[in-house]
Amino acid sequence: QVQLVESGGDLVQPGGSLRLSCSASGIIFSIGAMGWYRQAPGKQRELVATISSGSSTDYADSVKGRFTISRDNAKNTVYLQMNSLKPEDTAVYYCNARIKMSLYGVFNAYWGQGTQVTVSS
User: Fold this and answer.
1) Can you tell me the distance from the alpha carbon of 103 to that of 54, in angstroms, rounded to the nearest whole number?
2) pLDDT tens digit string along 24-48?
């Protein structure tokens, strides 16, 4: 099996910064694209940022210039550096990864349990 475990969520003041981490563990042959999503109360889950296996990145317009996604393939970990945080960034942040468990297997999508980010004074 595969597990994704997020960490780094916290309460922070507007304008502050946080760094989220998500580590994959278990039976892993290869990890493809990884990403961060978020879900605010009463809203649908939305894409925040993605990073390919080749480290190409993509961001939601709402976070461009403020958030940076990166990955450490040796550690099976993806990060989300969040700067200039705003109250509207408040949400549960979820990690997603496409993981293959064997050479001839297929990539399946896995989700973490979520970490709460609250931006408030």
Assistant:
1) 19
2) 999 999 999 999 999 999 999 999 9
